[in-house]
Amino acid sequence: MRMIGLFDSGSGGLSVLREIVRLLPDEKYVYYSDNAHCPYGEKSPEYIRERCREIVRLLLDKGADIIVVACNTATAAAIQVLREEFPVRFIGMEPAVKPAALGTRTGVVGVLATAGTLKGSKYLTTKGNFEDGCTIVEHVGQGFVELVENGDLEGKATEEVVRTSLQPLLDAGADIIVLGCTHYPFLLPVLRKLAGPGVRFIDPAPAVARHLIYVMVQERLLSEREATRALAKVIELAEKEAMGQKRPPLGAAPAVELISSGDPAPLQRMFHSIWPEIQ
Ligand code: DGL
């Protein structure tokens, strides 16, 4: 039986797991939340690399056949060394600057991410590639990770925290805002409310889920028939999106082992808010 491993500094990577499960509902998963060391955003790349090494060893011990680094900050700091040091395929996160740069009408793209991601060489290179055609404005989502870990996803106090980091991007004229941290999609209802209907947010998780299918076929972890079934779901989702319809509700909870390095409650809570039926 195949097993897909995922990890993040906390519960944020569940926003990626959610999109993967839409395409691959019957796989086995193991998810590691490093919440004893969360947030990663301001930590040094060396520190994050050490954490990633330890987590990857654990996921491999659990039997992971492929690993999704469901954290932009960890991807920026560590994916290169992980690829060099471990004999397993890694899928990483990357802020979706390209679709945003191609889609903006105002010519201003906003990026919300952690300090570590915004300093990463991959991000800086991607940004450099698109900066000629548009203006890219950035802001750290100050306090966003803490809000998500605490389960504070709505309410006046949450709105105030979110507004502080969002407003500078709106003031600069951004009409598309890239969510460059896997925690941030859980704040989308608040982000949308504050930004209003003229602003679109891009969560890269669906693209990462599609890329995972591709890599799993390459690695012979998915048969052609299974990949075809997953891609049929991709087409169904794209059609719904094109028609302006809502994404279909998620099905049953996946078979997943949830592991936390700290208090298990935040991860359990977020998981149950995504897949409430197994509470
Ligand atoms: N979910 C992580 C990311 O995508 C959160 C970073 C943090 O822990 O600060 O970057």
Account of the 3D structure:
By secondary structure, the protein is of the alpha/beta class. It is 49% helix and 16% strand. The protein has twelve helices and nine strands. The protein has a five-stranded parallel β-sheet with strand order 4-3-1-2-9, with helices on both faces. Strands 6-5-7-8 form a four-stranded parallel β-sheet. Helix 3 links the parallel strand 3 and strand 4. The protein is globular and about 50 Å long. The site of D-glutamic acid (DGL) has 16 residues, from helix 3.
Key features of this structure:
279 residues; alpha/beta; 5-stranded parallel beta sheet; 4-stranded parallel beta sheet; 12 helices; 9 strands; globular
Structural class: alpha/beta
- In round numbers, the mean pLDDT is 95
Bound molecules: D-glutamic acid
Instruction: Report on the biggest sheet.
Output: 5 strands, parallel
Helix content: 40-55%
Distance between the termini: 26 Å
Total number of β-strand segments?
A: 9
Secondary structure topology:
Blueprint: E1 3-8, H1 14-23, E2 28-33, H2 45-61, E3 66-69, H3 72-85, E4 89-91, H4 97-103, E5 108-113, H5 115-119, H6 121-130, E6 135-140, H7 144-149, H8 156-171, E7 176-180, H9 188-195, E8 200-202, H10 205-218, H11 224-242, E9 255-260, H12 265-274
Parallel strand pairs: 1-2, 1-3, 2-9, 3-4, 5-6, 5-7, 7-8
The structure holds D-glutamic acid.
